[in-house]
Amino acid sequence: MPDSFSPQELMQLALQKAEEGLFRTSPNPRVGCVIASVDGRILGMGSTQRAGEAHAEIMALQDARHRGHSTQGAVAYVTLEPCSHHGRTGPCCEALAQAGISKVVASMADPNPLIAGRGFARLRAAGIDVEVGPGAQASKTLNLGFLSRMVRGVPWVRLKVASSLDGVTALPNGASQWITAEAARRDVHAWRARACAVLTGIGTILADDPRMDVRWVDTLRQPWLAIVDSQLRTPADASLFQVRDRAVVIYAARPDPERETALKAQGATVVHLPDPSGYRVDVHAMLRNLAQRGANELHVEAGGELNGALVQAGAVDEVLLYQAPRLLGCGRGIARFGPLEALSDSVDLHVRSLDLVGEDIRTVAEVRGRSDFI
């Protein structure tokens, strides 16, 4: 490692530290901080810990102290505006000022209404120079879920699908295990782990009896599970209840006191959010409720019916598609919606990445323009 770094390199290191919190920080944003001398020597580095624990700036200051470095007159490179309020932790702005930081370089402002520019104002009031912008796109991409919850009031919705090359997700008889190979299935667990919540439908629960947890990735927390179950048909002895230390929220359209009592006895929370018909769950109300519960990224693993309902409602932000190198012919599709009357009515996607995972193809595609909200 060189003795000194350029400002661009120091912000890149801060972004790498932010990425360390991928599976850890929810519902807080993923933030990294590097504190350096004016001539670019690293004094301390840190990333945000679990909710309620130290933020990136505090971790970097502690690291500098452990290394025996003074931070008087130093520059802090941080991937999001430092907080200015007392929450479960103290304000980072105050800690930076007390540590003698002379300048803060931040990737972007924090849209959290509790901060929203107040952090920068507080730093400037303390005589600290503030620069905003370097690394903004990378920080935004890393925190799309948090930004979505703060700005739009709903989580970032990622629709995961596994299919053959001809778009079949299951045979006509429902058989779907396993279309993709083990490498792809392991990769899915990393995407689950980074989400605040996993969403599925009652059809998947009844057909597969899945656990819907993270098993193949080391993680400090399990994302909680949300189930769309209009008629409360989730079995009280379903395998999903075997997962410890995980919240389960079931969204229903119609009350059923007896079944609700049985599900609550298993630790589930039942929320009634009927659409105008009274027979289905209101998708938009559900997403708002998920955001109110602290969901940043919502990872959807469901069947064609729920997938289609989410697409039809315009609720999907991103598609995570795994395609196996095989053809299955007739079978079940990715999402049931339409029929469309014109190609111009299609959901237009922008491919962000295309990779091989084992022998399967992984495509990550954003609904075009979806991240333009900030």
Describe the protein's topology.
Layout: H1 7-19, E1 32-36, E2 42-47, H2 56-66, E3 75-78, H3 92-98, E4 103-106, H4 118-125, E5 129-132, H5 136-142, H6 144-151, E6 156-164, H7 182-194, E7 197-201, H8 202-208, E8 224-228, E9 248-252, H9 257-265, E10 269-272, H10 283-292, E11 297-300, H11 304-312, E12 318-324, E13 349-357, E14 360-367
Parallel strand pairs: 3-4, 4-5, 6-11, 6-12, 7-8, 7-11, 8-9, 9-10
Antiparallel strand pairs: 1-2, 1-3, 12-14, 13-14
Helix pairs in contact: 3-4
Summarize the structure.
This protein is of the alpha/beta class and 374 residues long. 27% of the residues lie in helices and 21% in strands.
Describe this structure in words.
The protein is α/β, with parallel strands linked by helices and 374 residues long. The protein is 27% helix and 21% strand. It has eleven helices and 14 strands. A hairpin with a 2-residue loop joins strand 13 and strand 14. Helix 3 (92-98) packs parallel to helix 4. The longest helix has 13 residues, at 7-19. The relative contact order is 0.12. The mean pLDDT is 94.
